[in-house]
Design brief:
185 residues; 7 helices; 82% helix; 0% strand; globular
Length: 185
């Protein structure tokens, strides 16, 4: 069961890269090219909210105890941000089924919803990890953040010629979270 759970968590993080980063970037570029204001507006709201998810990944790198809780909150907010705007929903309904951009956007919204729900169900199986991520039972949640740390470390070294060490990651996570919360006020 543990191997299956570990594989499921790993797959969730891999799908989140595709559906939370890759597809929204493609949709944004596509909507700019097609001059679709409804999709542009939807993605503008989505990117503002999804920053909390990326901050939560930095919290995982620093092994911050409430990082899983913040990740689930961010996923909930991301799901809400793509659904609960009546004006955008009405504009998307006006397009016919032959408009591939709006169909792709609708499929992407449902995908985000199911991935977020799956992520929540998986994290509820490890309820203790919501408050204490450093336990041995929560190791499966930290493994994807180690991979993310390696990627950020290599990018940081490439762009700035410096080492991305744990104190820098700790500073970035707290600074980004502070800026995000300050931006909400």
């Amino acid at each position: 069961m543990n191997v299956l759970n570990q594989l499921s968590v790993w797959l969730s993080f891999q799908l989140s890269i595709i559906f939370f980063i890759g597809i929204p970037i493609a949709l944004l570029l596509w909507s700019i090219k097609k001059r679709n204001k409804a999709v542009n507006k939807l993605l503008s709201i989505y990117w503002k909210v999804s920053l909390l998810f990326f901050i939560s990944l930095f919290l995982f790198i620093g092994k911050y105890n409430y990082s899983l809780l913040i990740t689930n909150i961010s996923l909930l907010l991301m799901t809400i941000s793509v659904w609960f705007w009546n004006d955008i929903n009405d504009e998307l309904k006006e397009y016919d089924l032959s408009n591939s951009l709006t169909i792709t956007t609708k499929v992407w919204r449902w995908s985000i919803t199911f991935i977020s729900l799956n992520f929540l169900i998986q994290s509820l199986q490890n309820l203790a990890c919501f408050s204490f991520i450093n336990s041995s039972a929560c190791e499966i949640w930290l493994q994807p953040s180690i991979n993310f740390y390696i990627i950020v470390k290599n990018l940081f070294n490439f762009f700035f010629g410096a080492n991305f060490i744990q104190p820098i990651a700790n500073f970035l996570r707290l600074f980004l979270l502070f800026i995000y919360i300050f931006g909400l006020i």
